[in-house]
UniProtKB/TrEMBL annotation:
The keyword Transmembrane applies. The chain crosses the membrane at residues 21-50, 62-80, 92-112, 118-139, 151-172, 178-197, 228-248, 268-286, 298-315, 321-344, 356-379, 385-406. Residues 24-411 form the Major facilitator superfamily (MFS) profile domain. Keywords: Membrane, Transmembrane, Transmembrane helix. It is a multi-pass membrane protein. It comes from Pseudonocardia nematodicida. It comes from the Bacteria. SUPFAM superfamilies: MFS general substrate transporter. This is Aromatic acid/H+ symport family MFS transporter.
């Protein structure tokens, strides 16, 4: 780590050399891709778990297992942000990746649903910490004025991981069984952790004293509720709740909903794949749009698009039409949530950035928990198709309303990129 001084501080966008920023962006992208694989793998293996003769699962029990994992993710997200702000990004990232990799591997050897659910909860503690740390780091090392595209590019990793999960599941589960999804998914982590250890910058916590400014408050979490930030925080948490409800509801239950609509398992898994391909395409576009028109208008456009295309999926379309509709839904649904994170990362001061992202992600996990529960309840009631898509469309509309409630800031957290860095401590009006 000779290239990175222990005295470096990451106070805001544009920190560090381009070479260091490239390493941060690459390593954080890989970490998020591994997280995406591990979070989506449950939706891929769930149909096989429901058919496991000795486990006796039904959709309600499957929802409980999903909930256990997401509770772990929520706790991990809420805890990792403040720890990263106080103790440093590198240390937090290493421990989150190591912990979820080991515990996910153990899921392959679970002998029943209760053991499996407990392991998913423990793995979730590490999984929840990846995103707040990664988003904070890429924003601190990004090119000035490109925070929106840096965040959305980072989040393509999540969906590349999700696409890899769907592709691997189509081949692995019928041939070898669901357990091998967890075994094979751990191999990239084993190769990645040494790279993370060697090349991720070892910065001190952003709350430390810097040469250019005073010591930041000891408790970065307090910043989220004082100095006029509380109304915005509540609005962000609500938007994140809605966005994550959509992400996890669809990624967990889309295959089963489409099976209820009359599609076979292979077609349903292919549709999950198309949904996540659309997500990657949407992220590549959404960040650039946010950099041009401002992150606030962009997130409003994306939540509105999600509302429209989810409602259209309730209309049965022939042939390629259903795949086109799912692709467009993926373009807007997943990017809406990521743009919320981009908005959060520019709205709060640097010393509380990871805490703000962690809070939005952690509180939003209640929506992630609700998504699978809503989908499971609709499936149990036999009305998942078409009413599930109307329900998800209403959730997207509520997300747009929550973003409208965010208090506008004095500095450039909502403005189009101009090539200059935004004020790191804008403060809401």
């Amino acid at each position: 780590m000779s290239e990175v001084s222990r005295g470096d501080v990451a106070p805001g966008p544009g920190t560090g050399s381009p070479k260091r920023g490239a390493w941060v962006a690459t390593l954080c992208w890989i970490a998020v891709a591994l997280e995406g694989f591990d979070l989506v793998v449950l939706g891929v293996v769930l149909p096989a778990l429901l058919d496991e003769p000795t486990w006796g699962l039904d959709p309600a029990t499957g929802s409980l297992i999903s909930t256990a994992g997401l509770l772990g993710v929520m706790v991990g997200a809420l805890g990792a942000g403040p720890l990263a702000d106080r103790l440093g990004r590198r240390r937090a990232m290493l421990w989150t990746v190591i912990s979820f990799s080991v515990l996910s591997l153990l899921c392959a050897f679970a002998t029943g649903p209760w053991t499996f659910g407990a392991l998913r909860f423990l793995a979730g503690l590490g999984l929840g910490g990846v995103l707040p740390v990664a988003i904070a780091m890429v924003n601190e090392y990004s090119t000035p004025g490109r925070g929106g595209s840096s965040t959305t590019t980072l989040m393509t990793g999540y969906h590349v991981g999700a696409v890899a999960t769907a592709l691997l599941g189509i081949w692995v589960i019928p041939a070898f069984g669901w357990q091998w999804m967890f075994i094979l998914g751990t191999i990239p982590s084993a190769l990645f952790i040494p790279l993370l250890w060697r090349y991720l910058p070892e910065d001190p916590p952003p709350a430390a004293t810097s040469a250019s400014g005073p010591r930041a408050p000891r408790n970065p979490v307090a910043q989220l509720v004082k100095d006029g930030y509380l109304p915005s925080s509540i609005a962000f948490w609500t938007a994140s709740f809605m966005g994550l409800l959509l992400v996890y509801g669809l990624n967990t239950w889309l295959p089963q909903i489409m099976r209820a609509a009359g599609y076979g398992l292979d077609a349903a898994l292919a549709q999950l794949l198309v949904l996540n391909v659309g997500a990657v395409l949407g992220l590549l576009v959404a960040g650039r749009v946010a950099d041009r028109i401002g992150v606030r208008p962009a997130v409003l456009v994306w939540f509105s698009g999600a509302t429209l295309f989810l409602a259209l999926l309730a209309v049965r379309m022939p042939g390629v039409g259903v795949y086109a509709g799912i692709l467009l839904a993926g373009v807007f649904v997943f990017s809406s949530q990521v743009l919320v994170y981009a908005y959060v990362s520019r709205h709060y001061p640097a010393h509380a950035r990871a805490s703000a992202i962690g809070a939005a992600s952690g509180v939003g996990r209640l929506g992630a928990i609700s998504g699978p529960l809503v989908g499971g309840a609709l499936l149990q009631a036999g009305i998942a198709y078409p009413w599930g898509f109307f329900a998800f469309a209403a959730v997207a509309a509520l997300g747009a309303l929550a973003v409208l409630a965010v208090r506008r800031a004095d500095a450039g957290d909502e403005a189009p990129a101009t090539g200059a860095p935004a004020d790191p401590t804008p403060g809401p009006r």
